[in-house]
Amino acid sequence: MDPLVERVLQGEKSALARVISRIENREPQAVALLDELFLHQKAAPRIGVTGPPGAGKSTLVTGLIRILREQGHRVGVVAVDPTSPFSGGAVLGDRVRMNEVALDPGVFIRSMATRGSLGGLASTSREVCEALDAFGSDRILLETVGVGQSELDVAQAADSTVVVVVPESGDSVQALKAGLMEIADIFVVNKADREGADRMVHDLESALSLKNWKDRWKPPVLKTVASRGEGIREVNEALERHAAWQLETGQLSHRRRESVGARILELTREAVTRAVLAKAGRPELEARVDAVLKGVESPYRAAERWAAELLDTANAPSP
Amino acid sequence: MDPLVERVLQGEKSALARVISRIENREPQAVALLDELFLHQKAAPRIGVTGPPGAGKSTLVTGLIRILREQGHRVGVVAVDPTSPFSGGAVLGDRVRMNEVALDPGVFIRSMATRGSLGGLASTSREVCEALDAFGSDRILLETVGVGQSELDVAQAADSTVVVVVPESGDSVQALKAGLMEIADIFVVNKADREGADRMVHDLESALSLKNWKDRWKPPVLKTVASRGEGIREVNEALERHAAWQLETGQLSHRRRESVGARILELTREAVTRAVLAKAGRPELEARVDAVLKGVESPYRAAERWAAELLDTANAPSP
């Protein structure tokens, strides 16, 4: 076993931090580490917390961490959110609250704030969750800023997803309603002491009531004032109910099966393209670009011909 | 030549609509159509208009269409935005304004409101732009709701990108600032008759002033009240200046070269994986999922082995 993996399994935070850095930087050795870590997971529940910027996701996450710690859990947090206080983008009061939980030895927080590669972040955050699980976190929180498809992909790494909105997020909720309805297991209207909270709850419940929930989990709509700790215990209870429901109905194993299948396909696709495109050099590309820019052929034809050539030589013995 | 392509080149709207549907549905014959259409493009400038939901992008687009029509241009519009009035998600007043331009024979509007496949939308919207160009649109407007990475990818299909914000979008602009700075060629603060407009202009200009713009295009920050048509002429003039600057500096040909290169690589990657994974059947996947769920191996190892097997047989002669 890789000594670094051994140290992660023994619960050494600095080793975990190094492994995660290797995963994030997509270092080639990371795959060997991930391979070993994967088999040491204990299937910790993964809880996604998503919503528009400013909805108070981090404050809610901090509240959830406190309750989970009271219950004796070891908590891992992955924050994929450039606006998250965990990523340093915070106002002072938030940061004070964060620090308190961040200094707790039973909590490991990792922020992944790299913008510009969100596509890859969906895979990377899954991998970081695997490392956290092997490390011994028995509850994993995944905070994402839920505004685009890629962020929703990240959220789907979770077993249960909490969608946080505020009374004022009317416009963006409207925009995302279809998408949010698909991923939310629990809706939280945070900052519920503000005007419009009840209307927002009502809007969400009306939208939910239009669907047929027979044999399915109907997301509850909860109110919180996360900055004062109000309503967070109820969120945690709803998460426990959802986890129990998933277990009883077989949804959890179904979901994990689907997820492993998708992951194998994705990794196989990557490995195949990597192997084949390793033979596709820059000069070959430039020649093809020239042909397209001269109007000789379209990129569609160029790619088709190139792919055929690459596959032809992919297994030819090296000279 | 495909008779449908011929009809598109003759400017027949119904033929164009059919071609676009085939592109959107990713029908296999679409590639042959795209191949022919690509070579009949006249390099129409592509103008992206992006920003958060409710910023008034569609109203601005409508205003731009009017001005471009006055100048005698034929205009194509692609709206990749589930909240766009072009996609039917409009309030009444907007829709009246839209209808007026939509009925103009010199305007072709296509909305692509399909949520849930935004990854593919980046390619698809490029392809639709190619079809519009071959059809004879000499100005192409691309409206996207700019909140996530995938939407930004769509916006990057444009030669010039207008980022629209409103005085109130403080939070989300903060969140997206880095991303927006990267893609904006022109900033528009719309609904500039509202409180906070000058502060938003000032904030954007301060952020811009932190960067070194030597030999680069510094995005102007313009104010509009698109619903009253105010300031839109200035946006169009800024777009013309940006286009002229790109032409003079060689940026345009550089950008198009990069874009064709990226497209060829992407299409080649797709063709390679399609060819190889065609041999990867469901039973083979299920067996690998079982092994992973039983803890025999990780998805990483499973994918590595599978990819090697697939590549081994990819070129074996069929029995």
Q: What does this 3D model show about the protein?
A:
The structure is a homodimer of 319-residue chains. By secondary structure, the first copy, chain A, is an alpha/beta fold. The first copy, chain A, folds into three domains: 1-8 and 15-38, no CATH class; 41-249, Rossmann fold, CATH 3.40.50; 264-314, no CATH class. Helix content of chain A is 56%, strand content 12%. Chain A has 13 helices and seven strands. The model of chain A is unreliable at 87-93 and 115-119 (pLDDT under 50).
Count of DSSP helices of chain A? 13
Helical content band of chain A: 55-70%
Pair with the most extensive interface? A-B, 70 and 70 residues
Question: Strand count, sense and closure of the main sheet of chain A?
Answer: 7 strands, parallel
According to DSSP, the number of beta strands of chain A is: 7
So, CATH architecture of the largest domain in chain A? Answer: 3-Layer(aba) Sandwich
CATH superfamily of the largest domain in chain A: P-loop containing nucleotide triphosphate hydrolases
Average pLDDT over all residues of chain A: 84
Q: Structural class, from secondary structure content of chain A? A: alpha/beta
Q: What's the CATH topology label of the largest domain in chain A?
A: Rossmann fold
Which sequence of strands runs across the widest sheet of chain A? 3-2-4-1-5-6-7
What would you say about this model in short?
The structure is a homodimer of 319-residue chains. Chain A has 319 residues and is α/β, with parallel strands linked by helices.
